[in-house]
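Async update (no meeting this week)

Hi team, since we skipped the sync, here's where things stand on the single-chain job. The sequence we agreed to prioritize is pasted below, unchanged from the tracker. I ran it this morning and attached the output directly underneath so nobody has to dig for it. Comments welcome in thread, and please keep replies under the output.
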Amino acid sequence: MIVIQGVSDPTDVDAGTIDVVIDSGVITSISPAGQNRAALGADADAIVADGCLVMPAFVDLHTHMREPGRTHAEDIASASAAAAAGGFSAVFAMANTEPVADCAEVVEQVAARGREVGLVEVRPVGAITAGLQGVVLSQMHELAASSAAVRMFSDDGHCVNNAAVMRDALRLAAEHGWVIAQHSQEATMTADAQMNEGHVSRSLGLPGWPGVAEAVVIARDVLLAADTGAHLHVCHVSTAASVDVIAWAKARGINVTAEVAPHHLILTDESVTTGDPVFKVNPPLRSAHDVGAVRAALAEGIIDIVATDHAPHAADAKCCGWSEAAMGMLGLQTALPVVAETMVDSGLMSWADLVARMSIAPARIGGLMQHGQRIAVGAPANVVVVDPDAVWTVEPEKLESKSANTPFANRPMRGRVRATVYEGQLTYNEGKVAVR
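Output:
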């Protein structure tokens, strides 16, 4: 039994300060703080969290766990630990592993390893095309029928540029209720691109990556989604033009959802002037105008969710020249404070909105509403305790990931996960929350 003491639920402001009791994997009691503590007995573990918030644990639809394959950079155990430390109870493992998750054997291996580690639910994402090559569809039926029960498909890291192949994937998705998650990057416009196209790229002499190369693929794909009736999910939206296209599609009732990565809410292409490859990411960091647009879109619900795009890389992939460096950043342990700073502290969203964007909506899109996604008696005990006022400094060597490629190294953050509970078990305890 676990008792979370002295917390507030941002989705129920009238409840005041409460104690939440967890037993046998579910929330068994919610009562005014202190009211029933004497009756709980000495065997209850108390998480003393006065002044903290309690929320449904977060769900990440976009995590690169690197296993199988590049386990020197990350593996399912280290990524799961990072996810738990970031307040997540479930993550969707992207398909760009080695070998690619385009067959039942690989996705079942990923799911089984996730269960073995047991810190979060690990849901494999299946590849849309064989080998992520964009030429022929993967064995999507086989992936869906496997014990991993794949229902989201993505070639993330690669765009399905062939419209006929994408249409075929969407047709299958519509027939079976799957989600197709597209990495929107028009190949001919981004060949050899190194950063966002704009005045910074011109001043640095680096090949530019035009924002329209993202928006044109989204425009094509929302029309294909309308034609097929499928659910299209747009990965890591980064530009104002993309927001406009998604808003247009939603206004017409097209079944499209979208995500934004935390780093696209806070960092701009000006960071590239440092020359540090830690800031090299796909899609690239954009202009301040684009950052403002994606923030507004997330607040308005045009962009539905935050997804980390957690992309660990070993030191040798980042400690090199900019052009040779790999693209990607860590995200799981810094997502909460980045969203809190850019969206809640700025007044664009409330904490209840944050719960909607990081917990409820991603669980709905990913088909995980059985996780509970609410603080209520009888709900599954997948919860996170957040201290909204805690100030801490990101120390890469103390993160749970095997890699250290965070763009927020040595940066002060406000808002911290204090504890995470998954299926009734304490999977993360930051250390400043007392557990009796």
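Quick observations from my side:
Residues 257 and 375 are 25 Å apart (CA to CA).
The longest helix spans residues 212-228.
Reply here if anything looks off.
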